[in-house]
Amino acid sequence: MPLVLTFLGILALVFLIAFVKIDTFIAFVLVSLGIGLAAGMDVVAIGKSIQTGIGGTLGELVLIVGFGAMLGRLVAESGAAMRITNVLIKVFGVKNLRWGLALAGFIIGIPLFYNAGFIIVFPLIITIAASSGLPMMTVAIPMLSALSVAHGYLPPHPSPAAIAGQLGANIGRTLIYGIIVSIPAIVIAGPIFGRTLTKYRPQIDRDLFKIRQIPDHELPGAGISFFVALLPVLLLTLTGPLKTVFPEGSFADKLITLLAEPYIGMLLSVLVAVYALGIQRGLTMKAVMKDLEEAIKAASPVLLVIAGAGALKQIFIDSGTSKYIGFLLQDVSISPLLLGWGIAAVIRVCVGSATVAGLTTVGIILPLIENQTNVKPELMVLAIGSGSLMMSHLNDGGFWLFKEYFNLSIRETLQTWTVMETIVSIIGLFGVLALNLVV
């Protein structure tokens, strides 16, 4: 019966989101209520489970996602993203332009949410394509594949950060492993696949888009642009090893321990960005704070989706469904990493949302992690994250964003965007399985 309930619950979620078009958060709560009642839980207990799931899932994540949104907004609005792209284009030259764009997309994608990153890099893509004479898709795909990988694999992005929190994975190690796995995924799905798309030359009416051009002399310097964009990565990856350097209980040890907390690292990054990309460039504190308010508004829908997924996960646990599924899966011969990837991929194809796919998979796979000590939770985060990017098609908002902005037909979008996302997902899985052999 628990398996049937899980299957029906996921079907109900797919139906409500994909066909009824109901708000994702409401869909999660309705499905959580339905599974709880069908499992025989008391009504009061169901309410408590939903509240516990929401609170426990958001917790620290509100800080990480909130500060991440603020940092991304400042990097975008200040022109730091444009400066990073310009520098890398100059370094790589026209001949190796695709590689420079892939690297630029990855660096920009670390602090920026995918949709925000897309809106920022779109004018850069059409400008670069026009000035270099390269076909549009061969310029766009390398940059957007990198944005997509950062969105699916790397904290502090909402989905991987939430999955890491629920699986008890170390954020710093997840980020390091994620960067390692990202490299082949971006290389193959970006510059290599992008080179095959020379026949796609969409005609884009630039007058349809409000492209805010910032004069070069008003852009932030290259050094500060790279530093601010990469500061969260530096803090999350360097503070972990430094914990073992200083005597336990010393001031330095306590300071490093504090800086190693993901939300502290994100807070420091935001404060640096406020000064370096805002105040130092002549903006008033009021103007900078207005940007931060807009960033929080943009992040709110994502946080609600994560909250809803947390409620469903807790219902799975409190109803005994997770325990039962864990018991059934513990003797399954298939690799848990492959299983996590596969479940996320199926839900992604059905629902369309990478975030929903990733977070729903956690509730199903969680007991398997608890029963198998040989599975590294950091690698499971990446397996689920790469699965959640599988085969974006007509039920995914990202599909339509790409189609409409680049003025492609549905068939052309399937041949470009959907294939790119599928490559990212499959190469991500291979990368995780390979990394599992050596760590």
Automatic annotation (TrEMBL):
InterPro entries: Glcn_transporter (IPR003474). The chain crosses the membrane at residues 28-46, 58-76, 96-122, 134-154, 174-198, 219-238, 258-277, 298-317, 337-369, 381-402, 414-438. It comes from the Bacteria. It is found in: Cell membrane. It is a multi-pass membrane protein. Keywords: Cell membrane, Membrane, Transmembrane, Transmembrane helix, Transport. Its main location: membrane. Pfam families: GntP_permease. Belongs to the GntP permease family. This is Gluconate:H+ symporter.
